[in-house]
Specification:
Blueprint lengths: L13 E11 L7 E6 L20 E4 L9 H5 L5 E4 L2 E4 L9 H5 L5 E4 L1 E4 H8 L3 H7 L2 E5 L7 H13 L3 E6 L5 H8 L4 E5 L5 H8 L4 H14 L3 E7 L7 H15 L5 E5 L5 H6 L14 H12 L5 E3 L2
Parallel strand pairs: 2-8, 8-9, 9-10, 10-11, 11-12, 12-13
Antiparallel strand pairs: 1-2, 1-7, 3-6, 4-5
Helix pairs in contact: 3-5
The structure holds iron/sulfur cluster (2 copies).
């Protein structure tokens, strides 16, 4: 796609993304391309994308595939890899994510997550599906990780979307200075906002940060910026699915924001658990089972008693 017609775009803004996914159907209206930013200020106990949390590139290692050939040991410029009991073991304190080891592994056991990009490059990649955006009412979504952690990259991509007439969606946890939120949302048509727990202390225990800033920001988005919004509520058994918290969440959305905000309930799943092992992390904190279909229907009805149009995600 030619970029010369876009006015005043800072296409040199750089940052780190870990995926650009086309044909996304759940990140806003129509068919979309979602750009996943790397880096997140939260550490949710149930996070299924732990590879998104650090801002720098990280290695995923599938130890089962490793045959101990030691090729990676010899190319690592930081001497971060050693062979123990016939398997390559990476010292994460020494690894700087250069990725030389990923290029020599004959078993494809090592994969680098995260790459530096410019706004120009990320936009051009995402804009390949422009025809589908037009036909389906879709567009480009920024997700993560947390896009608000890289506001210059986010703004540069979004401005470019606007210059080409693409619908834009921001998927956010809302934890950022108001100035950052407001400057990014100038270019956003729809915001997907996460509600993880309504009690500040519990929110801090489960995610690492209080919810005060997050709730202040969402009120200002609704009442000052008036950007269309959808609420996203993860349902994590034993963490945030008590009736008290569900009522508090529904009441906040319906009464403090607006009863017209659609709510999307996302049942907890364990699909990402294996990634913690491949990141050689041992801090996956919860031992929950996914909620049953009957439980999700009960929660949906609970939200609907507040007049909220509520859907259950996959
Ligand atoms: S906000 Fe999302 S990406 Fe960040 S830690 Fe929580 S679940 Fe993971
Ligand atoms: S190069 Fe691959 S297979 Fe060989 S030791 Fe390293 S991780 Fe294992």
């Amino acid at each position: 796609m030619k970029s010369s017609s876009a006015p005043n775009i800072d296409s040199a803004s750089r940052g780190t993304v870990f995926d650009i996914q086309d044909f996304s159907l759940h990140d806003g209206p129509g068919i979309r391309t979602t750009i996943f930013f790397k880096g997140c200020p939260l550490r949710c106990a149930w996070c299924q994308n732990p590879e998104s949390q650090q801002k720098h590139a990280e290695l995923l290692v599938d130890t089962d595939k490793c045959d101990g050939c030691a090729r990676c040991v010899f190319v690592c410029p930081h001497r971060a890899i050693a062979i123990r009991d016939g398997k390559a073991v990476t010292n994460r304190q020494l690894c700087e994510g250069a990725g030389d080891c990923t290029t020599v592994c004959p078993q494809n056991a090592r994969q680098l997550i995260g790459r530096q990009t410019t706004a120009h490059t990320a936009f051009d990649e995402a804009a390949h599906d422009a025809l589908f955006f037009e036909r389906s009412g879709g567009g480009i979504t920024l997700s993560g990780g947390e896009p608000l952690m890289q506001p210059l990259l986010a703004i540069s991509i979004l401005r470019r979307c606007k210059a080409f007439g693409f619908h834009t969606t921001l998927d956010t946890c809302g934890y950022a200075k108001w100035q950052t939120v407001a400057s990014v949302l100038r270019y956003v048509d729809l915001v997907l906002y996460d509600f993880k727990h309504m009690d500040p202390a519990e929110h801090a225990r489960l995610t690492g940060v209080s919810n005060r800033l997050i709730l202040e920001n969402v009120k200002r988005i609704q009442h000052e910026l008036e950007v269309p919004m959808r609420a996203r509520v993860p349902i994590v058994p034993g963490c945030n699915d008590s009736d008290d918290n569900l009522h508090a969440t529904a009441a906040f959305i319906a009464l403090e924001l607006a009863p017209t905000i659609p709510v999307h309930l996302n049942p907890y799943h364990r699909l990402g658990v294996g990634k913690y092992a491949r990141l050689e992390r041992h801090d996956y904190a919860i031992d929950a089972e996914p909620p049953s279909a009957a439980r999700m229907q009960y929660i949906k009805r609970l939200f609907e008693t507040y007049g909220l149009q509520t859907e259950i995600g996959g």
